[in-house]
Each structure stands twice: as C-alpha cells, then as structure tokens.
C-alpha cells in the first residue's frame, strides 16, 4: 500500500477528551455527572428491574426525545423477556385553563393487562409523568411502573411513586445524556449543569 499523507488513521489509544465546560446558545454549563457514574447507576436500575419483573413480561415505554440514551443503555442490561416501544408527548394548545396541554402519541400496542414501565429522562414537577399515567390508565394496563434516570425531589409538585431512580439531583437545569437546552446538548455522554451568572 502506498503511503498517502492525507489519509487519517484511527489513533491506537483513544483517549476521550472530557470537556469540563460547554457553551450552548447563551448559557454555559459545567460537567456534573460523568458518563461512567451514570452508567453504573443505570446498570443498578437494570439489575433491580431484572430481579423484580422477571415473570411479568414488561413493556418498556420510552418517552422521547429525552430518554433515548437512557433507554438504550438501560435495555442493554435488561435480561428478561420484554418489549420496548416509544412514545412522544406533543404539546398542543387545548381549551384548558392551564394553556398548553400535552397529548401522548405513538402508543400502538395493546397495553391492557400488561406491566408497563415508563422510561423517562427526568421527573421535575412530575406533571408530565402524571399526564402520561392518566392517559395510559384509560387503556387498562395491569400496572404502571416508572423508571426515571433523574429526579429533582425539591421540585416535585404531585404525588408520584417513582419505582426506579438512577440519580437524584438538586434543583438546577441540566443538559447532556439525552437532555437538551432548546434542542441542543442531547449528544453529550456526560451530564452538565448550568452555570448561573
Ligand atoms: P415535569 O413535567 O416538570 O416533570 O418535566 C419533565 C420534562 O421536562 C422532562 O421530560 C424534560 O424533558 C424536561 N426537563 C425538566 N428538567 C429539565 C432539565 O434540567 N434539563 C432538561 N430538560 C428538563
């Protein structure tokens, strides 16, 4: 093979640069949870689910967009018979005193009599989760369980039984590992917290 000086080679040892701070639009974020720590907790949650639901043939319902990375990493460690599907919450202006309400789209499976595990990125006020549980409840599942990557306990406004939680975090805005700021930042493998000026 002839030497081509324009050709690029994969480095022998890939050392991933960890960026301590990132800028997204008008905001700066600094690293707060490293990928390896996230993955450890995700694996722990998967182990708990494997133990608890082994005879229940669960249907995992992943809530897009934010939970795509969590879902992928979680499912790699789920070792029991199960199905995975994806739903989305679409905002629309409804005739409601609260203004914007959310519609659940993409439930194509018959969930009657099934054990459902909602896979969510983050529970903040809990209103999104409450809405989802209400909607799913009308289709008569056997039970609805929640697996959330993150919970901000100080911000919870509604009573929710969150069965599986990878990590609890303070009341700060975060991005990365699927979570976004104005559509950006979902691609980072680590989690970053906003730097308040
Ligand atoms: P809730 O209805 O207040 O619980 O909000 C849940 C949704 O808000 C999540 O599914 C996220 O999409 C979004 N969210 C809440 N907190 C954050 C955050 O810190 N960063 C990015 N998105 C967030």
From TrEMBL:
Residues 36-181 form the Phosphoribosyltransferase domain. PANTHER family: HYPOXANTHINE PHOSPHORIBOSYLTRANSFERASE (PTHR43340:SF1), HYPOXANTHINE-GUANINE PHOSPHORIBOSYLTRANSFERASE (PTHR43340). InterPro entries: HGPRT, Hxn_phspho_trans, PRTase-like, PRTase_dom. GO terms for cellular component: cytosol. Its main location: cytoplasm. It comes from Bacteroides graminisolvens DSM 19988 = JCM 15093. It catalyses: GMP + diphosphate = guanine + 5-phospho-alpha-D-ribose 1-diphosphate; IMP + diphosphate = hypoxanthine + 5-phospho-alpha-D-ribose 1-diphosphate. One of its GO terms (biological process) is hypoxanthine metabolic process. Pathway: Purine metabolism; IMP biosynthesis via salvage pathway; IMP from hypoxanthine: step 1/1. One of its GO terms (molecular function) is guanine phosphoribosyltransferase activity. Belongs to the purine/pyrimidine phosphoribosyltransferase family. This is Hypoxanthine phosphoribosyltransferase.
